[in-house]
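Figure caption, in words: inputs first, then the predicted bound structure.
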Amino acid sequence: MSTLPPLKETGTAGSALVDRFDRRVTYLRMSVTDRCDFRCVYCMSEQMTFVPRAQLLTLEELLFVGRTFTELGVTKIRVTGGEPLVRRNILWLLQRLGALANLHELVLTTNGSQLEKMAPALRAAGVRRINISLDSLRPERFRRLTRVGDLDKVLRGVDAALAAGFDKVKLNAVILKHRNHDEVPALVRFAVDHGIDIAFIEEMPLGRIDDHDRAELFYPSDSILADLRPHFTLLPTTRDTGGPARYHRVAGTDSHVGFISPHSHNFCARCNRVRLTAEGRLLLCLGQEHSADLRRVVRAWPQDKRRLEQAIADAMSIKPQGHEFDLVARPVILRHMNTTGG
Ligand code: SAM
Ligand code: SF4
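Bound structure (iron/sulfur cluster present):
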């Protein structure tokens, strides 16, 4: 028996999703699994306990939630994880999300390990853009950062993605002091040589990890920018992707370098996104715990679109104003990034 209150007769269900701060939510980041074939040191601890499978949303439930969001005004869905491409039958879901009438953009974030074999099928399924995480170009170091990853396989995945004809392929790199900060120019050179963009991400305090002290290895975007200046001319752009990254164009090339700096630059005022965990918890902010349990709704009233619309619309009222990351204090956010859906 469900304990949910009776469905309200009035409400914002059916209209666009707008929160208390007049921010319109048009972007859903959907985690399809908390599992991963890598164990990146900033994302997971070595021994991870994953959510029991029965608690994960089924592919049908994920589709139902995704479709309902698009009917409420969401125009962009990013499928992520964990590693989304290790979820069994993920193509079934992507094909159906890719065909949703109101969805303008279906995009994917991946560690690249499965791209060599899956890139053409992902493109055919309607994935428009793809972000590939790449923190190092040195095999040993790549292995150390991911604990298990095979760099060559990921590089073949990058090539496969480029050949598959996505509208855009972009790299993401998390930079840690003394681990890979000296590779920043080489990573930009790699992006430029491949005619693609790269975004550098500051490490965020999501979940307890055993590999390092996050404050000690913190490497700010401003330092990355300073490291790049002797090698490249970076021209600030006004390019607005609606997201947190600030972009510079590398002079004389088509490549852009982005900086995602949750510590030094607060981007919350323009936040247009919410996140769905693989368990069906709707997170209203990456850096806060405010959430709504959508799994409870879809399991109590399977395929009841109005109930789900109502739950999503109601959740807008608890979207917080912003995040408050603090690397020195103990992490207040206990969930890891693989749970959050980065
Ligand atoms: N497995 C896929 C991947 O690695 O691209 C998708 C999920 S992963 C959680 C999404 C992004 O989050 C990756 O680019 C990863 O580097 C980043 N990430 C993971 N943990 C992070 C942390 N604690 N701080 C900042 N970025 C993190
Ligand atoms: Fe896996 Fe991505 Fe987390 Fe690395 S960052 S452990 S690839 S989910």
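Residues 27-340 form a domain with the TIM Barrel fold (CATH 3.20.20.70).
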